[in-house]
Amino acid sequence: MSYLAVENDRRIYFEHHRGGGRPVVLIHGWGANTRCWDTTAPALATAGHEVVLVDLRACGRSDNDFEDVSIATLADDVVQVVDHLELSAPVINGWSLGGAVATAAAAALGSRAGGLVLTGGASPRYTATDGWPFGGTSDDVDGVLAGAAANRADTFRGVAAAVFATAPSSDVLEWIWGMFMEMGPIGDETLRDLARTDLRKELGELDIPILLLHGRDDAFVPFAGAEAAAGLNPHARLVAFDGCGHAPFLEDRDRYLAELTGFLTS
Questions:
Q1: CA-closest candidate to residue 123, choices 113, 110, 114, 132
Q2: Could you tell me the CA-to-CA distances from 217 to 90, 115, 166, 236, 254 in Å, in that order?
Q3: N or C: which end of the chain has fewer CB within 10 A?
Q4: Is-cis flag, bond preceding 124, omega within 30?
Q5: Average pLDDT over residues 245-259
Q6: Beta bridge partners of 108
Q7: What is the pLDDT of residues 167-198, one digit of tens each?
Q8: Which of 88, 78, 63 is nearest to 28 (CA)?
Q9: DSSP per residue, 78-118
Q10: Measured in whole angstroms, how far is the alpha carbon of residue 265 from the centre of its chain?
């Protein structure tokens, strides 16, 4: 286990699994933590890749009492981990809200980034706005957070169930729900910030390979939004996962790994 101080004495948790292949940084979604990648990271490491996992602020084993949990700041944390480990041309892979963090981190890294992967990524926008008719509204996000404030357990259980297009086993549902319940309440502000984050310019200007792995039945980030995101950058390629919701790496693991490892070695 490793920790990195990023705000005064407050620390984030990360794991560094060494390998001779392309480095890949895995960034979890809102409320989750590094353990969500437990069916992905070992396969990447076995394939020889250098794998880094990060618990975002207020999530998992990172500290819970940060003052700043904005998307931009979380992205800066990822850059700090990349610099701390001296990673060479890492591919940044973000799931859900982690997709926004990954996009901002890749933009900050610039030519030092090796690629970007958006796994059901909430990027470049999570909510609809002028010129971007995809997603819900800030009021929808406020409604979810109000529900969490009143009844955190039931709200997060509902969110966990909605991740999947097909109902998962009770064990998988409990696993995802348990991760959500570990997030500190300040982490709610990260979702609130996501609702107003716009990374269209950053995504469009990236001069690196970009891969979007997206379920057609995603209940959080509409597939049409992923299509629009891919259209913003000529280096982007979208892979659709039929019958999958918000987590293709859990719902169609073998194909997900085939697409991801192919991208990493290309």
A1: 132
A2: 29, 25, 10, 21, 18
A3: N
A4: yes
A5: 98
A6: none
A7: 999 999 999 999 999 999 999 999 999 999 99
A8: 78
A9: HHHHHHHHT-SSPEEEEETHHHHHHHHHHHHHGGG--EEEE
A10: 21
Q: Is the pLDDT of residue 245 over 90?
A: yes
Give the full edge-to-edge strand order of the sheet including 23-27.
2-7, 10-17, 50-54, 23-27, 91-95, 115-119, 210-215, 236-241
Phi, psi at 111, each rounded to 5°: -70, -10
Residue type at 43? A
Q: Measure the CA–CA gap between 245 and 176, rounded to whole angstroms.
A: 14
pLDDT band at 225 (very low <50, low <70, confident <90, very high): very high
CA nearest 40: which of 248, 265, 266? 248
Whole-angstrom distance, CA of residue 249 vs CA of residue 95? 9
Residue 65: count of CB within 10 angstroms of its CB:
10
User: What global pTM score does this model have?
Assistant: 0.98
Percent of the chain with pLDDT over 90: 99
The partner residues of 52 in beta bridges, in order of sequence, read 16, 25
Mind listing the pLDDT tens digit for each residue in 156-173?
A: 999 999 999 999 999 999
Contacts of 229-236 spanning 24+ positions with Cβ under 8 A: 229/118, 229/121, 229/123, 229/124, 229/203, 232/124, 232/200, 232/203, 232/204, 233/203, 233/204, 233/206, 235/206, 235/207, 235/208, 235/209, 235/210, 236/210, 236/211, 236/212
CA distance 231 to 131: 13
Per-residue pLDDT at 1: 67
Helices 152-162 and 138-150 pack at an angle, to 10 degrees, of: 130
Instruction: Give the amino acid at 163.
Output: V
208 CB-contact burial (10 Å; exposed 0-12 / middle 13-18 / buried 19+): buried
Q: For residues 215 and 120, what is the distance between their CA atoms, to the nearest angstrom?
A: 7
